[in-house]
Amino acid sequence: MITRIAFTLYPVVDMARARKFYEEGLGLVPTSDFVAGQWVEYEPGGMFVLTTMAKASPSADSGGNIAFEVEDVVSLTESLRSSGAKVLQEVMDTLAFRMSIVVDPEGNAVTLCQQKVAE
Predict the structure, then answer these.
(1) CA nearest 53: which of 36, 29, 65?
(2) Which contacts of 102-106 are long-range, i.e. CB under 8 A and separated by 24 or more positions?
(3) Section 68-72 average pLDDT
(4) Is residue 2 very low, low, confident or very high in pLDDT (cuts 50, 70, 90)?
(5) Angle at 66 between CA 63 and CA 69, to 5 degrees
(6) Are 109 and 88 in contact (CB under 8 A)?
(7) Is the pLDDT of residue 118 over 80?
(8) For the structural domain made of 8-115, what CATH number should be given?
(9) Where are the domains of the chain?
């Protein structure tokens, strides 16, 4: 029986480029760096891993996606766009969130969502 999700993993080719996006662009702080920079962990409310050790290739359309809850989805989306990130989905409203989808420099899709405040 499943007790919890252990981690979400994204394959990367260029770890330095990927780390710059996630650490400088999204503000994630690495909690562990294993195997000489081939497996870097972050814990923003659950474990997220970047690795060059995966047998899969980075992809924005292969089905995998992580959604990070953020404070200001509009500002962050624009900041990432200004830094050169591709925006797949402009900021849109759903019932519970405002969200956008950007592509990291490795080609993985990342959903940014801001929970709506009940009125």
Answers:
(1) 36
(2) 102/77, 103/60, 104/10, 104/12, 104/18, 104/21, 104/22, 104/58, 105/14, 105/17, 105/18, 105/20, 105/21, 106/10, 106/11, 106/12, 106/13, 106/14, 106/17, 106/18, 106/21, 106/58
(3) 94
(4) low
(5) 145
(6) yes
(7) no
(8) 3.10.180.10
(9) 8-115
